[in-house]
């Protein structure tokens, strides 16, 4: 019924014109002394035929509305699917839509080309920067001094930021390199632990991990990236104490530290892109990208990533690996 009432509203000028015509006829007949019964009969006949024309017009109006409603973005040029124009005004509108669509398609092609060029540039840059990083690593390992150890730690951070840039690009490209199958979770965790072993030793932080025989359906590289980022944050914000990795019977992997913790007002927003929070602003070490990439990667894998924290007592990040809408390849 709402479509019918809208149709009536859109043709309100026609109804007003009909009422005026009926009133004019009634006035003229009255002035000539013609009985009003002569007026009511033709008006009644006109109303009956008018109702038929209104019904036909409404059916045509509704059919066109349903055709337009069924149109879906991405089916091709919209103008190829539009119903035939019923008036000069509709033809003008369709021509305008066609021009706007062509302009939008051209601008999108330009944007896609620019985006691909930028992704290719950053991917090339990340791969090229790894060569001098590797050379500097070898040079710093030639002599075991306190200064070289500090420089090696900073170089490790540079390498991590370079890897993060490449990860950011890959995730922005719909993560097309996902390989979903069953993996031994223990192997993925130990690989991440080995990568950060030097950082734990340098910061004198104890790592607690007892191993697990759990198998999970995931992508090894992307789950490894999430664990590495959680370990990186744990090392960064823990000055003393320990970091504990645990996997429970419900396939929930947790990384718990005894660091500075996260303030309650920051906790709901830590996975937002670019959000650094109080700790990031005070320490000026956070980019606000790491946890955002973790959440994005977890969403792509179908895993749930959650955080709990208490200021001054540490943080606990949990990856729920039990429920996921994935199938092994």
From TrEMBL:
GO molecular function: kinase activity
Enzyme's top EC category: transferase
Membrane-topology descriptor: Multi-pass membrane protein
UniProt domain Histidine kinase: residue ranges: 124-325
Highest taxon listed in the record's lineage: Bacteria
EC number: 2.7.13.3
Keywords: Cell membrane, Kinase, Membrane, Transferase, Transmembrane, Transmembrane helix, Two-component regulatory system
A Pfam family the protein falls into: HATPase_c
InterPro entries: BphY/WalK/GraS-like, HATPase_C_sf, HATPase_dom, His_kinase_dom, Sig_transdc_His_kin-like_C
Family matches, as Gene3D superfamilies: Histidine kinase-like ATPase, C-terminal domain
Positions of transmembrane segments: 12-34, 40-61
Name of this chain's protein: histidine kinase
Source species: Ruminococcus turbiniformis
